[in-house]
Design goal:
about 130 residues, alpha+beta, Immunoglobulin-like, 2 domains, four-stranded antiparallel beta sheet, three-stranded antiparallel beta sheet, elongated
Length: about 130
C-alpha cells in the first residue's frame, strides 16, 4: 500500500487487495487511517492557543488616513494562521463602537497584530479574543 505525503494515511491502488486488509487499514483498531486522523486532529487542537485582549480607547494612533492599534501576542509570527473577533457579552456601547469603527486586521508580525479602524475611532474599550491555530 502507498501512503499520503503529509500524514502517512494509507492509500490503496491495487484492485487485487483483499477487502479485510483494506478495511483494517482504513478503519481498523491498530494504526488505521481513522486512528491517524484522530491523532492529527488532537495535536492541532492542543497546539491552538486562545488569548483575550482589549482594544483600549486610549491606544488608537492616527496614521494619516485611519486609526490603528497594535496588540502584542506571544507566539504570533507573520505566517501564523488565526482568528480575531470581538469578545462575548459586548455592551450596546461597545457594539456600536465596533460597528462605527469598521475594524479590520492591518498587519501581522512577530509578536504583534495591528488592527485598523477604517471608520470612527472607538470611544470605548473593545474586548477581543484571538485564537492562534496549531
Amino acid at each position: 500500500m502507498s501512503a499520503t505525503k503529509n500524514y502517512g494515511f494509507y492509500l490503496e491502488g491495487d484492485d487485487t487487495a483483499k477487502f479485510k486488509e483494506w478495511r483494517e487499514k482504513l478503519n481498523g483498531l491498530v494504526n488505521s487511517n481513522m486512528e491517524m486522523i484522530d491523532e492529527v486532529l488532537a495535536e492541532k487542537a492542543i497546539k491552538s492557543q486562545s488569548f483575550q485582549a482589549s482594544l483600549t480607547s486610549s491606544d488608537w494612533v492616527w496614521t494619516g488616513s485611519k486609526y490603528s492599534q497594535t496588540l502584542e501576542i506571544e507566539g504570533l509570527t507573520p505566517d501564523t494562521n488565526g482568528i480575531i473577533g470581538v469578545g462575548q457579552n459586548l455592551t450596546l456601547e461597545q457594539t456600536d463602537a465596533v460597528y462605527m469603527a469598521e475594524l479590520m486586521v492591518g498587519d501581522q508580525t512577530d509578536g504583534a497584530l495591528t488592527i485598523f479602524a477604517n471608520g470612527d475611532k472607538p470611544y470605548c474599550d473593545i474586548p477581543v479574543i484571538i485564537i492562534l491555530l496549531g
